Amino acid sequence: MELFVEDMDVSVKFYRELLGFEVQRRAAGYASLRRGLVVLGLGPVAKLPAQGEGRGFTRQRLSVDKGAGVEIVLELDGLDELQALYEHCRERAVISEPLELRSWGLYDFRLADPDGYYLRITHGNAAARIG
Question: Which whole-number Å values give the CA distances from 41 to 15, 31, 83, 97, in the listed order?
Answer without folding.
Answer: 11, 6, 26, 25
